[in-house]
Amino acid sequence: MEREDQSIEAGTQQSEGRAQLAAPLERRSFLGLLFGVGSVGVTALISIGVASISALLSVPIVRFVLHPLSAKTTETAWSEIGAAEEFSAITIPVKRLMTVEQRDGWRKVISEKSVYVTKGKDGQLRVLSAICTHLGCSVPWIEAKGQFICPCHNGVFAPDGALISGPPPRGLDELETKIEGGRLLVRYQYFRQLVPTKEVIA
Amino acid sequence: MNQSLTTQEGSKLANRSRTSRVFEWFDERTGINKLLGKALDEPIPGGVRFAYIFGSGLLFLFISQVITGVFLAIYYVPSADHAHTTVAYITKEVTAGSFLRSLHSYGSSAVVVVLLLHVLQTFVYGSYKGRRELLWIAGCVLFALMAGMAFTGYLLPWDQKAYFATAVGTNIASEVPLVGEGIKRLMRGGADMGTLTLSRFFVAHVFLIPSVIFFFVAIHIYLFRKAGAAGPISEDPIAPKQKAESFYPRQLLMDLVFSLLLITALSVFSWLVPAELGPKANPSDTQFLPRPEWYYRPMFHWLKFWQGSQSFIGIIVIPTIVIVLFVGLPFIDRKLERRPWKRPVGVIVFTLVFLSFVTLGVLSYRDDRRNPAVAAQIAKQRKETEEFMRTPFEPETASSSLAAANIALADPLAAQGKTIFEAQSCNSCHGDGGIGTPAGAKLIGVGAKMSPDQLITVLRQPTAKMAEGGMTPLKLKDDEMKAVVAYLRSLK
């Protein structure tokens, strides 16, 4: 009870202090020098202190949180599917399995994707995704008929991937390719199904 | 209650600056002014001192640990499979990750150092005297909780030293008579250390203990304010007579200087000597010599003296006596005399116990250095840690990955099955590797749901539901069918 009164009293007349004078006041002259800069100065020092502490902590934290913004993404990396020469003489589509590695933070997902290497009407090499543009089934090359025929709903595609008949909204999707040092590189991507135009899905 | 005040002030409002009007608006609704006044105008008998900075320093460190810890959880996964990878990811890849983890890791050491200084100051100044028993006990509870934080946090990186140190730590619990084995199993989530242990330690470290700490920090501060600052050793701890100085501004400034010093020291340390991560825990390693953090070294060394039937005395009885004496200090030492030279018994006992701790710690390090076999093994472990820190981060291969599937395909029958699976265009609808497509069900894990015979039956004669989905009967020879089934069962 008594203590309670004292604290309120001391709180309201903080600068005036209490009746008895304290001896230790003189001993703190060094501190007095250090902190005897007046109340405005002290408030400024306190603000500087709080700001420095916050900055020291928040700078690394902000960088830590923003890491995914600066981390380079590897999901659209190029994968090799063989020597370019190997495909120069093909007359029918050739199936190749390519390994795609996707980084997902601290893990990687390795998957095997089927693609077809074929030639366009202009004689240029084209690499087609084997995923049907209708509902996403894997489309096999049916050699006996000289066509790609989807077993799910009978979508039919020409050797260059163009749509011939059936429910698919567009031909088989062509993947980006490039030749580097004689090797054929492909960038594997997924495309939206059931739409007439080719749209990349992230 | 201060309605008249507000109406009076309301008329003056128009003349006030915008900032003070905003502040008043806010204050009328929150009472922040009174609250801040109450918090900052704490009277300190005899004036402010640098000796009083440790409590605030601890509070600051705890908040810093909470903040860094919360952010570390952005990338951390508490499972035996992923914990080590995610900590390696934080350490080696994430921007400022190594720095933040070091701040958190060294922060625990800083807490221990400042905690000891806080206890030392309280003891030397006799600030536990004069109706402060509950305040002291609340502090002891916080001490224990902080020790619990250090113990549970140590396991989370799931590297070799984390795993084996915790194995030893949890083993100690089994020394408790009757219930010891049960406590150990409870802590570990089973007879052995495993992923359940990690989950438990994670929940304790991140949810349970911190929430109890928040609670006890509030109690500790409340009881401190209730009793009042004790002031210098010449002061009466119950009815202070010396001139009081308010906490604000000079004590606050001193506390801030200390906090700034702490965070600067931690930052410099984290920057120059980043916290390390060793190789992933390998429970089958029989060579590994676990060593706890420096602050657990005295206890670690103490345990070496007690073997067999006597260990109950050394591990349970003596520590319990020390703890009871420590917690009971304000009940045992009831005189109001605060000057250390006037209370020699307490000071001598306290100093002896403290010196024993230091000696035990020093002996622990010395023994490790003097025993050539131990020194060699510890040097080897150091080298392995350095080696691991040098290697670039290696992402974990997801379980659904091809690499995992390829291991299963080491079985030639399953490999043959894969060829048939593709030749029969099963992958057209069920997807490559049976991952499933809109046209066909996922086959991964089907081996766990159906026996080989059941699989053969439904492949030959699909159920009505399967047929409706477009599944056609598979016409294959018996050995080919077996190959397909072997392949299906390899899809996990």
Mean pLDDT of chain A: 78
* Helix/strand class of chain A: alpha+beta
| Number of domains as seen in the coordinates of chain A | 2
Radius of gyration of chain A: 36 Å
Q: Give helix and strand order of chain B, one letter per element, not per position.
A: HHHEHHHHHHHEHHHHHHEHHHHHHH
* Strand elements of chain B, count: 3
Number of helices of chain B: 23
Unreliable stretches of chain A, pLDDT < 50, 5 or more residues?
A: 1-35
Strand arrangement across the biggest beta sheet of chain B: 1-2
Overall pLDDT score of chain B: 90
Question: Strand pairing plus helix content of chain B: what structural class?
Answer: mainly alpha
The CATH class name of the largest domain in chain B reads Mainly Alpha
Residue share in β-strands of chain B: under 5%
Shape of chain B: elongated
Radius of gyration of chain B: 32 Å
Q: What overall form of chain A do the CA principal axes indicate?
A: elongated
Classify the oligomer: heterodimer
What is the second-level CATH architecture of the largest domain in chain B? Up-down Bundle
For the termini of chain B, the CA-CA separation is 70 Å
How many domains would you count in the coordinates of chain B?
Answer: 3
Low-confidence stretches of chain B: none
Could you name the key traits of this structure?
heterodimer, A: 202 residues, alpha+beta, Rieske Iron-sulfur Protein, 2 domains, 6-stranded antiparallel beta sheet, 4-stranded antiparallel beta sheet, 12 strands, disordered N terminus, B: 492 residues, mainly alpha, Cytochrome Bc1 Complex, Chain C, Cytochrome Bc1 Complex, Chain D, domain 2, 3 domains, two-stranded antiparallel ribbon, 23 helices, elongated
